[in-house]
Amino acid sequence: MKLIVGLGNPELRHAGTRHNIGFDIIERLSGGASFSSGKGNFRFTKISAPGGPLILVKPMTYMNLSGHAVVAAMNFWKIRREELLVICDDVNIPLGSVRIRKKGSAGGQNGLKHIIESLGSEEFARLRVGVGTELAPDSLSSFVLAKFTVEERGTIEKVITVCVDAVMDFSSHGIDHAMNHFNRAMI
Strand order of the sheet with strand 36-37? Predict the structure, then answer.
């Protein structure tokens, strides 16, 4: 069993924003399944996958407090760090890029930073989705909390499909295989 956590902000006003790409990917993975409240501040659903069951989680905290929900979900299902994959936005890589790593720093992503602090470790897999910063205004928070433009949305739809395939590959073959097959410069 693997725990797949998509980061985002819970309020409806944040739907479709750059910061909520993790939620978008979790929704696509769920195939329309309904989500239940977990034993912690998260919502979840379970799906069958070729590599075994996947627990899909959306923290209901704000991005910068995601670690609380991740730890609660891991404790509830007795998930080890090597069975965890966190999906998040990344302003440091170009729009349309996907980076999968088995461990590493937060790289300025506040959700990852809080998860690292909460777990006391950087050793968990993460799938970063490039949302770019080419047109970023002075405030980075305004940029990540803004919705994708119509032009960007076409790229993001393709990226979401690639990310779903990457999660399924992680489930079936592990993080090394997924890294070798899905780390790309651009979609």
Answer: 36-37, 42-47, 54-59, 2-6, 84-90, 125-130, 98-101
Q: How many domains does the chain have?
A: 1
Range of the domain at 92: 2-182
Comparison of pLDDT for 93 and 87, the residue scoring more: 87
Distance in angstroms (rounded) separating the CA atoms of residues 161 and 87: 13
Residue 119 burial (C-beta neighbours within 10 Å; 0-12, 13-18, 19+): middle
pLDDT band at 121 (very low <50, low <70, confident <90, very high): very high
Which listed residue (14, 19, 68, 181) is catalytic?
A: 19
- Within a domain: 124: yes
Q: Which of 74, 64, 68, 128 is nearest to 101 (CA)?
A: 128
CA distance 164 to 24: 10
* 19 carries an active-site annotation: yes
Q: Does some domain include residue 115?
A: yes
pLDDT computed for residue 71 by the predictor: 97
Residue-wise pLDDT tens digits, 33-80: 999 998 889 999 999 998 899 999 999 998 999 999 999 999 999 999
